[in-house]
Every structure is written in C-alpha cells, then in structure tokens.
Amino acid sequence: MFITGFITATLYLASGAWLGFNLLNAKIIQDEPNKKILAIGFLALLIHAIILYADTVTRDGLNPSFLNSFSLVSWLVVLLYLVAEFRKPVETLGVLIFPTAAIAVFLQLFWPNATTLDNLSFELEVHILLSLLAYGLLAIAAGQSVLLLIQTYYLKNKHPGGFIRSLPALQSMEMLLFQMIIVGFTLLTLALLSGFLFLDNIFAQHLVHKTVLSIIAWLLFATLLLGRWHFGWRGKKAIHFTLGGFIFLMLSYFGSKLVLEIILQKV
Questions:
Q1: Segments forming the whole domain that contains residue 131
Q2: Which residues, given as ranges, of the chain have pLDDT below 50?
Q3: Which of 205, 122, 167 is nearest to 26 (CA)?
Q4: Which of 119, 138, 162 finishes a domain?
Q5: Which of 110, 139, 184, 249 has the smallest count of CB within 10 Å of its CB?
C-alpha cells in the first residue's frame, strides 16, 4: 500500500507542477483544458480511491479518522475539480488542489489511526454525503477566492505577469466563484437540514461544536449571497466572506477531529 500511495502522491504532484509551469509561462488556454494533465489526474484519483477504500472500509465498519477524512475530502475535491474542468475554466485551481491531495495521501500512509463506525442508517449516510459534497465545493470556492485575491492585487498594482495572463478575466473569475458558492451553499443547507431531521440530538455534547461552527459558516455564506444580490458585493468583501465561511466550516469538522484524535492522544 505504501508504494501505491507513493505513486498516487507523485502523480498528484506531477500534475500540480505541470500546471504551475504552464501558469508561469502563460501556456494555459482557459477554453481548452490540458488533456494530458486531466488523464494523469484521473489516474491518480482512481488509485487514490483504492487506497481510501482499503483504509476506510474495514471489517469492523467505517474508519472516518481525521487523516482518512482529510484524504477523502481531498479526493472529493479533486473529483469535483476534474469534472468541472469539462465545463468551467477552473484549470488554474489545480495548482492548489493537486498538492493538497498529495499531502493528504502521504499523511494517510505515514500516520494511520482508527475510529470505527458501524451500522450507519441510510439517513445518516445521506447527511454525511451532503456534508462532504458541500465541503468539497466550498473548498474549491475558497481556492478560487485565493486566486481571485492574487489576481486583484496584481492588476491593481499593474503587474500582470505570466501567471495573471493565464487566468480568466476578473469578471469571469468572480462569476465562477459565486456559482460555486451558490451550489455549495445549497448543499450545506441540505446537509444541516438533514442533520436536524435525521440525528437524534444535533446539539448533543459531542456534536454541539460542529453544529454551531457549521451554522456560523452557513450564516456567513448566506450573508455574502444576500449582499451580492441586494448590494452587489464583490472584490475583497466577497473574498473575505468566502474564506471566513470556509474556515468555520473546516473547523467544524477537522478542528474537533484534530484535537480529539491527534493532539489529545499525544498529551
């Protein structure tokens, strides 16, 4: 499994490095995704899925440990990114997404840990799936907002180098960002609703921090969309709300798992 993981991480890194080289040399054509990079990405995604299945689906039940969950979300983000490549000009996001997936694979291999869940109901599986999809899309939106922030900075300072020339127009970048946020926000809304409907007590002691942080993230994204619709918010305000909402969403799940499974076990 180590060799398989090493190959997967190498493929991810190679894809990210190739994209980075193309960006620096202004070789990315936004309407024509690089088919070779897509092929390498899909190959890495397939092998990554095999690793995830072996580590997550055990005889005793599911193992949603911190690092397995991080790896799973990274896999989902790569999948959504590669699928979106056929319809939207998001190729530049691979510079952030592919290396993150490589790191997730390495961590999963070197620091395995177990947290087993069994006998999950269909309703709970739906809730988990909606949560993962929402997190994945909003993670991509956060990456898009980082690129948008960099693009805005360079354009305002009149230094549109090779990297900036490879990006779509600023208006297109913003439009794509809000399209991602709208879909991700919808999925997050459904995930929260399913949690309230299907979980016995979503404010139980072991869930209250996740629920509160997720609701804060939901409120930030809702405020951003309302501001965009009613006041025409854009630029830095949109970027800050996007990153703020994503940080709270990330803390709602990974923050608690990091503390409980890794930090406290070492104390």
A1: 120-267
A2: 264, 266-267
A3: 167
A4: 119
A5: 110
